[in-house]
């Protein structure tokens, strides 16, 4: 009897010990899973342009790193020459957050790239400039017929080109379209290989400053540019609080730049290797509001309609599938 009692006691002790150990293990596992649910790294894409001032300033000031260092989250920055290559990075799962123009963002959505616009990083009528080569005697859209006109195909500037031509009854087929990245547009003006171009800052002001071309127009009365802050939809859904904190950093940068435009120009000048006067000139053309203003939403809706009508996109894109205001609202940015 004593032996049976002893055996039962041993079994009970073993069961209790196993339960206790298993319970402790379960708790540690849950805590571990909770900790591991946060990303170890956030990859932010941007372009070396003045319309990307908010991320460039925040990066330079260390505000992203400061926001996430307590979480042991590393911030990685990836630079892209234009929007279309950034969309490719989103499609390949290599980006979490990135700043992209409206046309490539809409085309991405139409092509089932799983991105969501969570905010805006630059908007306005003067973000893109229409330039004519020095000595070309080009004065308006009608003078572009038969000319070599450069633009980054698929960018926001591409949409402006089509609307500029349409304003005088011309089509893209009436010009010699030259697909160039912004850095190559300046070189092509220098070598007299193009007659005109549409490009954003700082390239436009730099080209003008060197007298390689002169400005004949911008988006005024044609296109209100809306540059979108995109997030990988899976990243945003898995990390809504982190997305809100990222937006707060962008908003902090917006307020700082507004209060310190001269210091911002210093940062841009150093980061982009620009003359400060060019940086300041370009900065004055930008509206760096991170919010989805009524004008921004109206412009996006119009751009979607135009892209659908000219078959640039092969299916409709619902504006509410493209943008999501809840992250800004959740961050208290209204």
Features:
2 domains, 15 helices, transport, D-Maltodextrin-Binding Protein, domain 2, alpha/beta, disordered N terminus, ATPase-coupled transmembrane transporter activity, 18% strand, 334 residues, 5-stranded mixed sheet
Q: Roughly how much helix do the residues carry, as a percent range?
A: 40-55%
Number of E-type strands: 10
Q: What is the CATH class name of the largest domain?
A: Alpha Beta
CATH architecture of the largest domain: 3-Layer(aba) Sandwich
Show unreliable segments.
1-35
Indicate the CATH topology of the largest domain: D-Maltodextrin-Binding Protein, domain 2
**Structural class, from helix and strand content?**
alpha/beta
What pattern of helices and strands is seen along the backbone? Answer: HEHHEHEHEEEHEHEHEEHHHHHHH
Strand fraction band? 15-25%
**What's the CATH H-level superfamily name of the largest domain?**
Periplasmic binding protein-like II
Q: Based on Cα principal axes, name the global outline.
A: globular
Number of helices: 15
| Biggest β-sheet strands, sense, barrel | 5 strands, mixed
- The domain count comes to 2
pLDDT averaged over residues: 90
Instruction: Report, as a whole number of angstroms, the end-to-end distance.
Output: 77 Å
InterPro entries: ABC_SsuA_sub-bd, Solute-binding_3/MltF_N, SsuA/THI5
Protein name: Putative aliphatic sulfonates-binding protein
Main location: periplasm
GO molecular function, one term: ATPase-coupled transmembrane transporter activity
